[in-house]
Amino acid sequence: MINIAEFLPPTPSPLWKLAKQAGADWAVGGLPFGEPLNAGDAPWDYMPLLRTRQAYEHAGFTQAVIESRPPLNLAKRGLPGRDAEIDTVCTLLENMGRLGIPVWCYEWMTDFNWLRTSTTTASRGGSVVTSFDDALVRDAPNTELGPISEEVLWETLEYFLKRVVPVAEKAGVKLAMHPDDPPLSPIRGVGRIMRSVENFQRLLDMVPSPVNGITLCQGNFTLMTNDLPGVIRHFGRQNKIFFVHFRDVRGTPAKFEETWHDAGQTDMLACMRAYKDIGFEGVLRPDHVPTVEGDSNSNAGYSSFGRLYAIGYIRGLIEAVYATE
Ligand SMILES: [Mn+2]
pLDDT tens, 183-223? Predict the structure, then answer.
């Protein structure tokens, strides 16, 4: 069965109640960077993670995923200090294992994370969404650390996985790689490797392990293929989909905008059928949503009210697909 989760920042807020009221029973957590009682503890240490998990439980959520990372830019660039950064990931994974949190969502985006050229693009009825246009960043300055090639990123990723995978296997925690967003390379001089179906297969084959897998973020994967349900089946057959971001876009990797869940270029019903067909057991979350009237756009893609519509839409799809046959 596929279950609906929501990304809930670790400090309780009205969003927690809205998500619960809309029918999400699973939490995707961040790391408790702002947790007040953690003197002497880092966010990836046992006690802060325990208290965060308890807070989710007391609000009615089972914590299914941690989708936040300790600093990893030295590891991604292969710079001095990378081993200490990788040590923090090993600590995090060991503690997740102790706490029964089964999936860690990570990524290999260097210097900057998901990138948009607008957070105020008009969408249905005056709602706003984020968008990306490569033509607007082609002349942007390189990042502070300068260009880095895809070849180096493959090397640093392999080095990282060879240290982390055995720890994750022992802890019983699955590693779910998120695609580069946008799935395009290079941007501002920085190579981006997790941007094609072939490259994700290379990731899986590079360090074979039952814990080496994928966050299937539909908004990115649908830009890599004309057959997203087929890609879900391709990786699902290998038992490699550990976590799903269920969202949609319209466009190409070089120029796209995010959409309402019912208004993108992807056959969302066919995707849901594919998850059922592969026997996916885990959680999805709606991921980015439009900012609607009356809600704040200060955290674009993550406004509260837009999530309610997304959860309702997804619940409808799940009922349609899982109730039949
Ligand atoms: Mn995503």
Answer: 999 999 999 999 999 999 999 999 999 999 999 999 999 99
> Which residue stretches of 68-192 are H helix?
73-77, 82-99, 150-171
Q: Which residues contact 46 (CB under 8 A, 6 or more apart)?
A: 95, 98, 99
pLDDT in tens, 250-279: 999 999 999 999 999 999 999 999 999 999
Q: How far is the CA of 252 from the centre of ligand 1 (A)?
A: 16
For the purposes of burial, counting CB atoms within 10 Å of the CB of 5, is it exposed (0-12), middle (13-18) or buried (19 or more)? buried
pTM above 0.90, yes or no: yes
Q: What is the rounded CA–CA span in Å between residue 192 and residue 283?
A: 26
The Å distance, Cα 84 to ligand 1 centre, comes to 27
**Is 178 considered catalytic here?**
yes
CATH architecture group of domain 2-323: Alpha-Beta Barrel (3.20)
What radius of gyration, in Å, describes the C-alpha atoms of the chain? 19
Active site annotation includes 322: no
Contacts of 35 (CB under 8 A, 6+ apart): 10, 11, 43, 48, 51, 52
Tokens of 131: 């968008």
Report d(CA 126, CA 252) in Å as an integer: 23
Asked if residue 77 has pLDDT above 60, the reply is yes
Give the helix ranges, DSSP H, for the chain. Answer: 14-22, 46-58, 73-77, 82-99, 150-171, 197-206, 218-221, 228-237, 268-277, 304-323
Catalytic annotation, pick one of 105, 178, 180, 248: 178
Nearest to 132 by CA among 269, 258, 11: 258
